[in-house]
Amino acid sequence: MKNTILVLDIKRVLIVAGFIIAFIILLPLALIGTSKEAKEKSIQLPPQENTSLEKEESALDILNGDIKVYISKEDRIETISFEEYIKGVVSSEMLVSFEMEALKAQAIAARNFSLNKIKYKCTQAKGADLCDTVHCQVYKSKETKIKEWGKNGEDNYKKISQAVDNTKGEFMYYDKKLVTAAQFFATSSGKTENSKDVFGGNHPYLKSVVSLGEEEAPKYKSTKTLKLASFINTINKAYPKANLSSKNIKTALSIKSKTEGGSVNEIKIGSETIRGVDFRKLFDLNSANFTLKFDKDSVTIDCLGYGHGVGMSQWGANAMAKNGSNYKDILSHYYSGINIKKDY
Questions:
Q1: What does residue 9 show for φ and ψ, rounded to 5 degrees?
Q2: Chain segment 105-129, per-residue pLDDT in tens
Q3: Are the CB atoms for 54 and 115 separated by under 8 Å?
Q4: What is the pLDDT averaged over residues 207-214?
Q5: Three-state DSSP state, 339
Q6: Does the pLDDT of residue 49 top 60, yes or no?
Q7: Residue 27: what pLDDT?
């Protein structure tokens, strides 16, 4: 009897030991798999970088009556008509003082851009179709904008409403497919950027084009001055292989190439080479079109333009409108090869 119990105990010990050994062996493998999966998810292109829809379809195939917008500051979801949402976007994303034709162009760009987030699901909307932040497009309600504008609030909103109502249901198409990467930004440096140079991918309608008359924009030029030690520490922390120091900074850092739009494409930092858009993010610059000047104890970074530079320049659109271009001319200029179709 004792021998039988002893054998059973030994079996139990061996089984438990087997489980422990398996756990020790498999746990690192499981962690490696999880880490890899997380890394792959973190580098997926953002929703607005998806290409045109797989098959020909109209906006009505995506839109379904009213839409739901997540109001982030109030942590609630608001249901409104799509066109009312567009009015809230145009009033928040473009200056109301801009020309009517520029506002009309913005209305259509906003419609197309919205379809991407609705189609591919906004990840910050908490179940709604869209959120009200820059993750989708900035949206503010009629009441909020009128209050912000003050005594001219009612007249300003009428102007925005006119721009949206006069283009109601109009969307951009490329090769009979809806344009879903309708990028726009504030100010160019004289040319826009190819999408592949900024976001990756190769949207055929997001090509570099000339964009004139933007010198009056308040952020056409900007300058940031940093202490040399802070500049070096920021780079070395983000890119340890750079090995920058005050002694080698002038020879170790150089611009290797530029994009067709004039921005920095690649910049060499010591033994590292990084993209200009990543350098822009590192120092929170207004654009990737920058130059560097080193003094004894500081670095001066001069920028041209404001924003990522892809798609429609808002100040450029206004300059075109001032020179007599209508909204279709503006959109056709900034989104190469598109046509405009009324869907409802």
A1: -65, -40
A2: 999 999 999 998 898 889 999 999 9
A3: no
A4: 97
A5: strand
A6: no
A7: 34
Q: Is the dihedral of CA 117, 123, 126, 132 positive or negative?
A: negative
Provide the pairing of β-strand 67-71 with 130-131.
Answer: parallel
DSSP state of 4: H
How many Å apart are CA 181 and CA 311, to the nearest integer?
Answer: 9
d(CA 231, CA 222): 18
- Which tokens in the block code for residue 38? 């997380």
Measure the CA angle with vertex 90, ends 86 and 92; round to 5°.
115
Q: How far is CA 129 from each of CA 78, 118, 142, 298, 337, rounded to the nearest angstrom?
A: 10, 5, 19, 46, 29
Tokens found for residue 21: 């050994």
- pLDDT average, residue stretch 291-318: 97
Q: Please, which residues have CB within 8 angstroms of residue 117's CB and are 6 or more apart in sequence?
A: 47, 48, 125, 129, 130, 136
For residue 185, what are its two tokens? 């930004």
Output phi, psi for 290, to 5 deg. Answer: -135, 160
Residue with tokens 């002038």: 250
pLDDT in tens, 157-210: 999 999 999 999 999 999 989 998 999 999 999 999 999 999 988 899 999 999
> First and final CA of the chain: distance in angstroms?
87
CA distances from 53 to 64, 169, 202, 321, 322 (A): 17, 18, 14, 30, 34
Taking a C-beta distance cutoff of 8 angstroms, is the pair 106, 90 a contact?
yes
Tell me how far apart the alpha carbons of residues 264 and 288 are, in angstroms, rounded to a whole number.
Answer: 6
100-120 helix and 153-165 helix, angle to the nearest 10 degrees:
70
Contact 291, 225 (CB under 8 A): no
C-alpha to C-alpha distance for 178 and 207, rounded to whole angstroms: 17
Beta strands in 104-204 (DSSP E): 130-131, 170-174, 177-178, 184-185
pLDDT confidence of residue 236 = 96
pTM over 0.70: yes
